[in-house]
Amino acid sequence: MSALAAPNEVVTRALLREVAVPGLDRPAALITLDNGFDHTKPNTFGPGGLTSLDEAITAALAADPAFLAVTGKPYVFSVGADLTGLPLLADREQALEIGRLGHRVFARLKESSVPTFAFVNGAAMGGGLELALHCHYRTLSGGAAALALPEVSLGLVPGWGGTQLLPNLIGIPAATQVIIQNPLMQNRMLKPKQAAEMGIADVLLEPADFLERSLEWAAGVVRGQITVVRPEVDRDMWAGVLYFARQTLDQRLHNAVPAAYKALDLLDTAKDTDFATGTAAEDEALADLIFSEELRSGLYAFDLVQRRAKRPAGAPDKSLARPVTKVGIVGAGLMASQLALLFARRLQVPVVMTDLDQARVDKGVGYVHTQIEQQVTKGRMDKGTAAKLYGLVSGSVDKSVFADADFVIEAVFEDLAVKKQVWAELEKIVKPEAVLATNTSSLSVTAMAEELEHPERVVGFHFFNPVAVLPLLEIVRGGRTDDATLATAFAVGKQLRKSSVLVKDAPAFVVNRLLTRFLGTVFAAVDAGTPLDVANSALDPLGLPMRPLALLQLVGPAVAYHVGGTLHAAFPDRFGVSENLRRIADSGQPIVVDDEVNPEVAKLLVVGDAPLTAEQVRQNALDALAQEIRLMLDEGVVAEAQDIDLCMILGAGWPFHLGGVTPYLDRTGTSERVTGRRFLPRGAAGLPA
User: Taking the mean position of all CA atoms in its chain, how far away is CA 79?
Assistant: First the structure.
């Protein structure tokens, strides 16, 4: 084993075989990457895996094949470097060595005199996609689940050739999108069709017979019957694209994510620098970032999203879940309509909406149909699937349509009396075992169910807007919610492809409680006399996805004021009620315009004469978060601090480079100063051991 290998590395073997291909006088060499597990444990590259690939390439070339191709095990090509070994690297020289090893092995495919092909049969991310880019040609399966260079989201850069090869293949605008923009937008993946249109793949093939068609296509290339033509890369726009990208990063991240800026520098290098010099610069950048706090926090956040999110703490045995064959939605407004589309697409069962009058019902169903039509127009949905969804979603003004529903969710006005009235009426209609779910953002699930005959079947099912984008689902256990109801809720959440977190029934649950405390602190500074622009920019050094006022505008001032009132009633000593926020909500005017404070809104404010500095606003906000998180953990709102971080990452877009919330508060000493102790053990999330 290499001296660099992690003790727990799951080695991806490069399995070599000869394949006879019709029309060729010599066999092809086919290398299959396989770590011995199914698709739930994807292929990765540690030192052992790179060594195995190196040996397979040597053996393949020694046999003088017609061509050499690399593919993956079923559903997975490779998802890149084995990240588990990174925290074990002892020094910068070892970090440089792991970068150089990957470059040396992959470069053999690029420099080979024998034609090389990547048959990308499944997920290809990070170093896996970089491996494919080193090959002379690439086929891509239409069934590949995910394609990406996600390193910047973790605090790294593509370190095995990606920053040098990709822009010279598909051009600097598209490369900047893949390497920087997509990772910073909730780690957005490319679909196979997108990747093919960009030019990352030379041909897109059907998944059913992908390997056979790939071998045929490769043989056509080798025989000269197929000519691959790639558009010339426009180099005149290179500097301008990177200048604009840097300005955008400055506006969004304010120098808070070193990896993004390193990636920009490497993309700049790729324009007219030879490949060896460019990859050496990747090695240096990688070595710098591997020992950064941002990477360690990014790895912690990545582990939460990839592992903890898939095994929710406290979820009951899934065998208790009841089948859901029909879904009812109370309400037909925007949120209800988004839910209807999501349930129909993911569960593939009838979904029926109700509202007070036919006009509202028609508007809600019409919204769903319009969204489906747009998906078809954009090529994201075939007409057959669209026709099926049209038939699944319906509406009515008569709630008796819920009589045979297994799962009914309400999305009505955020008022406890209104919601209690809805459930009291529905309990007389639905069958005894039907789950009653509330999408409340702050109200008590227990209080909502207390007067029902069967309160045990009421559960909180709190989505985040936009429903189709944000992956978090807060599942709230009321005081009398039983295990079967909870298990059904988690099963449905999984079918919806959401990451579910079990939350105790406490005011505003997790995300809204913390965001309200956070925004409340900022508005308290405004009320005291701090200029809006100072308060709005005070958190810039954290590199949050939105400034406070933009976040407030997204949430809606009226909603924020309402949730704030709920929390003020529960915790008056920590949650104030801002008269200025009420004024803004009543005005209906946008708070920010083109990322600048609306001067008309500023005129509405009544402020004091004790303004704070930006640093004071920032520290007050962080102190408030630390205090609130400690109280929530003491109250048992979630199982552990990791669940707080998971909620904030998935529900509020809290950056990976901060590790969520608690690692940052620990790193800066805020948690110990405010609460007397850390949230995480020393050594977690890159903290000093």
Answer: 16
Helix (H) or strand (E) holding 216: helix 210-223
pLDDT at 8: 63
User: By C-alpha distance, which of 584, 564, 580 is closest to 528?
Assistant: 580
DSSP at 23: T
Structure pTM? 0.85
Among the listed residues 122, 129, 126, the one whose alpha carbon sits nearest the alpha carbon of residue 145? 122
- Complete DSSP assignment for 63-103: T--S-EEEEESTTEEE--B-GGGGGG--SHHHHHHHHHHHH
DSSP readout, 176-208? Answer: HIIIIIHHHTTSPPBPHHHHHHHTSSSEEE-ST
- DSSP β-bridge partners for residue 476: 460, 503
For residue 16, what is the enclosing H or E element? Answer: strand 13-19
Strand order of the sheet with strand 28-34?
A: 13-19, 28-34, 68-72, 116-120, 137-141, 203-205
Other C-beta atoms within 10 Å of 231: how many? Answer: 9
Going by C-alpha positions, the residue among 221, 193, 195, 188 that lies closest to residue 206 is: 193
Cα 19 off chain centre by: 39
Q: Kindly report the backbone phi and psi dihedral angles of residue 399, in degrees, each rounded to the nearest multiple of 5, phi listed first.
A: -70, -5
C-alpha dist (Å) from residue 580 to 518, 520, 532, 546, 678: 16, 11, 11, 21, 35
Give me 356's structure tokens.
Answer: 């007070």
The token pair that represents 5 in the structure block = 């290998």
Beta-carbon count within 10 A of 586 CB: 12
For the ranges 44-53, 359-368, 617-626, 679-688, the lowest mean pLDDT is seen at 679-688
- The b-or-e profile of 365-399 (16+ CB within 10 A means b, else e) is bebbbebbeebeeeeebeeeeeeebeebbbbbeeb
For the cut 90, the answer to whether the pLDDT of residue 686 exceeds it is no
Q: Considering only residues 574 and 469, tell me which one the structure prediction assigns the higher pLDDT.
A: 574
- DSSP letter, residue 658: G
SS3 of residue 422 by DSSP: helix
